[in-house]
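User: I'm designing a mutation panel for F-box domain-containing protein and want to avoid disrupting the core. Could you give me a predicted structure to guide residue selection? Please restate the sequence first so the numbering is unambiguous.

Assistant: Good idea. Sequence first, for numbering, then the predicted structure tokens:
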Amino acid sequence: MTNKFTNHVVTSLPEEMLAEIVSHTASGSLTDFVNLRLTCKAFLGASNYDRVFEKVSMENVSFVSWRKSERVFQKRCIAARNAEALYRKGMVDCFSRKKPDSGLRCLKTATEKGHVEATYARGIIFICLGGELREQGLRILSSLDLVKSDKRSSKIIASCCSKTEKIFSCMWVYESLAAPRRDCDHDRDRDRDIGESTNRSSSLEGQAWEASNNIGHCCDSCFWDREATLFCNLLRKYLVTGC
């Protein structure tokens, strides 16, 4: 009787509410998500909506999925154009699977959906590639409006740096990038200190990157060159050699 009543109540809920319940559950736990799908046909049907996977949080899903349930879940999120899932796939394709074209497409889509870390990574990659792509990278990064001397900008940059290291530390890194050539004498003098600071740090949470503390004290180009150098140092730190 109780199950029939519950099923009747759930079935009577609007589709949007069902999708919101499923999305909220999936954001908290994949196990709870699987169990919810088994409770009744209404939740099972709602769990197939693309909008559920497009908006779901992936905070509790490993950066690089090894479990089958996580891999299936992440594939559904990618198909639904979930920004975080696209960012993760883009980074893995670029630096682990040696599929830069696919990776950059994923990062571009995630950027268009407003994903800050994807915007950061795509802009930095273009700066490192140089030439006309460098100018495109600077335009991409300028859209973040972060080169200002305020706590908000420093916090966002530090978050991007920390997340970059987290995802590199979880994958096999087979590709690296060359740091941009530095034209500023002051910047060249700081290159060694930045590299040593990155290599000394073992913290993955809230890493205080030196370049992030200099927002507002240099031009946009010099600031992003520093960030690109740090990004390249991280790639070298996790680069798999001898393969």
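For picking mutation sites, this is relevant: Residues 151-169 form the longest helix (19 residues). Residues 211 and 226 are 6 Å apart (CA to CA).
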